[in-house]
């Protein structure tokens, strides 16, 4: 009986030891934005641990400042993922930290051929996430060859789920192509182009993107598009509110032009696909009912 207890204790300790080894063997990934962290989790599954630095739709990503805890995570990271195109310049300090010898870096803008100074909101470009997922899968398979089939299967599942977004875009394009809209920022422009919408206010948006106050002529043109009902919908960034944005929303509400808020980060307990579909559904509702006032 005593021998049996000793054997059981030994087996229990062995299992716990194996669990510890498995946990330590997880591939550590830091994603500068949770839009990429979510995809990384979907591809890596139980063989990765993810830390997303920007992870709340309530925070202004342009006001972010580095914390020591993030630097510590970077030193332990196997893969660092960031947007690039000047969206997250603070990542340079992360990359300068000495970390794992095998650390890989994915610059999504570079992957997509998007240069500095271009619209950096790459997650609204429909081609971005499938290509990013493929690149990440390749790196995970190199780091953990024993589970390359697992990662490949997860990639296939992700692409199947992502097809829902592509189908929705095709539906919206079929219904609303050439419809004029306007936006306070360029955040949604890639998606608007994919749907075939005609985007007004681009000069205004460029000023905002470059942290330059819009000119008087740009403001007047923006307001005119709303008051003259040249556009059907106003799109704004829910994470970056300021007096100018509030003014344009107020004018749109006064003119009974639908207003759609979009964000830069995924809300809690929501996947990338769910988040994007929810926003596209809101846009569809607004485009279909041009007289619905903003509430």
Automatic annotation (TrEMBL):
Cellular compartments annotated: Cell envelope
Question: What InterPro entries does the record point to?
Answer: Bact_metal-bind_prot9, Lipoprotein_PsaA-like, ZnuA-like
Pfam name, any one? ZnuA
Q: Does the keyword Signal apply?
A: yes
Major localization class: other
BP term (GO), one: cell adhesion
- Which keywords label this protein? Metal-binding, Signal, Transport
Q: Which GO terms describe its molecular function?
A: metal ion binding
User: Looking at the record's lineage, which domain of life comes first?
Assistant: Bacteria
Annotated coiled-coil positions are none
Which named protein is this? Zinc/manganese transport system substrate-binding protein
- The organism is Aquicella lusitana
């Amino acid at each position: 009986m005593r021998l049996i207890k000793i054997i059981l204790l030994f087996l229990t300790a062995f299992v716990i030891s194996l669990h510890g080894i498995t946990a330590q063997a997880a591939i550590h990934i830091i994603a500068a934005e949770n839009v990429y962290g979510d995809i990384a989790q979907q591809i890596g599954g139980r063989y990765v641990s993810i830390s997303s630095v920007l992870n709340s739709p309530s925070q202004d990503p342009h006001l972010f400042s580095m914390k020591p805890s993030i630097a510590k995570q970077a030193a332990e990271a196997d893969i660092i993922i960031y947007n690039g195109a000047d969206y997250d310049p603070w990542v340079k300090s992360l990359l300068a930290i000495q970390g794992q010898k095998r650390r890989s870096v994915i610059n999504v803008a570079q992957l997509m051929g998007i240069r500095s100074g271009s619209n950096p909101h790459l997650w609204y470009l429909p081609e971005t996430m499938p290509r990013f997922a493929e690149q990440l899968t390749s790196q995970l398979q190199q780091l953990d060859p024993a589970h390359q089939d697992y990662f490949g299967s997860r990639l296939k599942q992700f692409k199947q789920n992502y097809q829902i977004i592509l189908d929705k875009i095709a539906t919206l394009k079929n219904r609303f192509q050439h419809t004029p809209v306007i936006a306070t920022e360029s955040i949604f422009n890639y998606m608007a182009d994919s749907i075939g919408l005609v985007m007004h206010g681009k000069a205004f948006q460029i000023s905002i993107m470059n942290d330059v106050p819009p000119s008087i002529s740009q403001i007047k043109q923006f307001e005119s598009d709303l008051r003259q009902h040249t556009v059907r919908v106003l799109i704004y960034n829910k994470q970056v509110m300021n007096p100018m944005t509030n003014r344009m929303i107020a004018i749109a509400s006064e003119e009974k032009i639908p207003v759609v808020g979009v964000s830069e980060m995924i809300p809690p307990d929501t996947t990338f696909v769910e988040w994007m579909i929810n926003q596209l559904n809101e846009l569809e509702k607004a485009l279909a009912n041009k007289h619905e006032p903003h509430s």
